Amino acid sequence: MPHYEDCILYLLAKAYQKAHSAFKMKLAPFGITPVQHLILAVLAEEDFLSPAEISERVVMDGATLSGVLDRMAEAGLIKKEGNPEDRRSIRVFLSPKAKRMREELAAQRKSINDELTAKFSLEEKLLLKRMLKDLKG
Known about the structure:
Blueprint: H1 8-27, H2 34-45, H3 51-58, H4 62-74, E1 78-83, E2 86-94, H5 96-116, H6 122-136
Antiparallel strand pairs: 1-2
């Protein structure tokens, strides 16, 4: 019988805890959470998205995302405006404050990725990414 330390779920959970904790520490000076960072990264790639489009990209339910977007708007990280093409919906975009943070946030993301995979060869890093993407579905 395998020990719990060999269980894939256990290993993934522990790896996630380590990565998430380290990333939270890197983001603390910016006053944002890893989830908020993810949303900022999505908006940096494509501005003026609807909450439904953001929800789809970050794989988060609408109710949870709504609260996160509200907190981000209150913190001055994003702006919301009515959608001229559909008055029933809004579009979300980066605030000037978030745009100024974009490069440094990308550097922090790269830094944590480099730290977490420092002991892996290039081939192992590529394999890990591929396997995680396959698991994600």
